Amino acid sequence: LECRVRVPLADALTGEWVDKVRVPSIGREGTTRPISSLMGVAGARAAASGAPLRDGARRSLAGHGMPKKGGGRGDLVVTFAVDFPSASLSEQQKALVRQAQLR
Fold it and tell me: Of the four, 50, 64, 90, 98, which is 20 to 30 A from 9 by CA?
């Protein structure tokens, strides 16, 4: 089972997506769960360890997909779509981005 979730650029760059992204709950129509609760503590920490989330990145969440015939569940594969700004950045915003890159 696959789903696509949108992530704001700032969250993708800072690792805050781990706490904010929600994915559909299988079997509970119209409800979502935080992705961090499905990744487990170690997985969530590793994902937010500082590396930016790339547009099109995929994460497989074992046991959180569709039910299998013989019991258990398949995987839920999440594809991330990073939202880039549609308008040009102001000079102040550009300066902030450059400053952040120096760190």
Answer: 64
DSSP three-state, residue 66 = coil
- Taking the whole predicted model, whether its pTM rises above 0.90 is answered as no
Question: How far lies 81's CA from each of 8, 18, 27, 44, 67, in Å?
Answer: 9, 14, 24, 18, 26
The single residue listed with the structure tokens 């013989």 is 70
CA distances from 27 to 62, 63, 64, 98, 100 (A): 16, 13, 11, 45, 42
Interatomic CA distance for residues 16 and 63, integer angstroms: 24
pLDDT digits (tens, 9 = 90+) for 10-51: 888 887 777 788 888 777 777 787 777 777 666 666 666 667
DSSP 53: P
DSSP β-bridge partners for residue 78: 3, 59
Residue with tokens 């935080």: 34
